[in-house]
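S.,

Sequence below, as promised.
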Amino acid sequence: MVDSVQDGPDVLYIDRHYIHEVTSPQAFSGLRKRGISLFRPERTLATADHNIPTQHQELPIREKLSRIQVETLSENCKEFDVELYGLGHPHNGIVHVIGAELGFTQPGMTIVCGDSHTSTHGAFGSIAFGIGTSEVEMVFASQCVLQPKPKKMRINIEGALGKAVTSKDIILYIISQISASGATGYFVEYAGSTIRSLSMEARMTICNMSIEMGARGGLIAPDEITFDYMNGREFAPKDADWDSAVESWKLLQTEPDAVFDKELYYRAEDIHPMITYGTNPGMGTAIDGNIPKLEEIPADEQPSFKKALEYMNFVPGMKLAEHPIDYVFLGSCTNGRIEDIRAFASLVKGKKKAGNVTAWIVPGSKQVEKQAYEEGLAEILEQAGFEFRQPGCSACLAMNEDKIPAGKYSVSTSNRNFEGRQGPGARTLLASPLTAAAAAVTGKITNPADLL
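The prediction came back faster than expected:
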C-alpha cells in the first residue's frame, strides 16, 4: 500500500499489469489526450485473446470489429512501448493462462487487468483483481490504483474428492451453495486439505471463478506445489534470486489466529460432478440430481428462477442426466490449460465423438497447444473425431467467430452461463472438462464417473 485516503480507498502499487485488446483502447486514448506516457511500461504485458479466431490465425481476421480491436492493440503497444504477445507470437494466449505459465505471475504480487477473471492469479498467493477501463488508465499513468479494503472470507474444504470430481466441480458446488452473489464485498481465501492437495492448474480454476459468486478476488496460500510449478518458468526468478524468492514466499501464510468476517466449511465427499441448469453460475446441481422444484426456491427469487428456466427450456424438478446436447466447448481461462486437455483426452481416448455434437477443443495458449501436440493429446482428440483448434478465448464469450447458435445446448468448461454469453439465444451448461468429454462422446448430459 502506497497511501490511504482518509475515509476513502487505499492507494495500491501494482506489480504486474496485464492488458488485452478489449478494455485497453480507451485507456491508451486517455494517455494520448493528456500527452503522457506509461509510468512503468516494463510492468505491463499485453496479449490478444478475446477477439482472435481459433482457425487460420495466419490470415486476416474476418470480423471487422475484432480485426480493428486487435490491430489497435498492436498500434497502441508499439506507440507506448508495451510488450505484446500478438497473433503468431509463441507466447500468445489467453491473458490469464500465459501470465502463470510464463512465470510473470508470482506469489505476493499485486496484479490487475481490465478483465474480471484476473482473480485467477490469486492461486499463487497474490492479490489479483479485475479493474475498469478508467482504472487501466490510472495504472498506466501511475502504476497505482485506488481500492477500498474488502471484507475477508475463508472457505475451508476438507477430505478426499470422489471419482471424476474436479476443481471445477468444487467451485460450482460452492457457488450453488452460497449463490452468485454470496461473496459480494469479500476477498476469499480457499483453505483446507482438499485445496492443499490440488495442482496449481486446478487451484487457478477455483480462483478464476471467485468472481462468479460476487467476490472481489480469491487466493490460495503458496506452498511447495506452487514453488515446484514455478521453478524453471521462463520469467520466474533464477539461481540465487530463486532461493531468495522462495524464502520470502514461504512467509505468505495466514496467521493461525487470523479472524475472518465470514468463514464457511464444506466436506469434499459431499461434492459430485456438477452442471448448471440456469442463467447464472449459482444455478447448479449434481449431474445426477434434479433442477429444484418451484416451492424449493425462496418466493422473492421465483420470478428470476422461472425466467431462467424458460430461457433454457427446462422445467422445475426435471432431471438433467440424459438430456441431449448440441455443442461442447473445452477451453477458456477457466479450463484451457494442459491438465484440462489431458483430462478430456483421457476420457475420450478409444471412443468417438457423438454424431449430434459439434465440439471445439481450444487450448488456452500457444504453449499449451505445442505441449498438446508433443504429448500426443491432439492426435488422441483427432482420432476420436474432434477438431483441435488454435488458442484464444473462443466460445467463452460471443466476441469472436466461435458462437453457439440460438436454442442450442452447449456443455461448456468456461465460467459464465448468462443469457447470450456464448451467442444470442445460446443455452450454456457449465461443467468440468471430464463432464464435457462425457457429453461429447454420448451426445447427452452424462456423469463422467460412469465412463471412467
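The first strand starts at residue 3 and ends at 4.

Coffee later?
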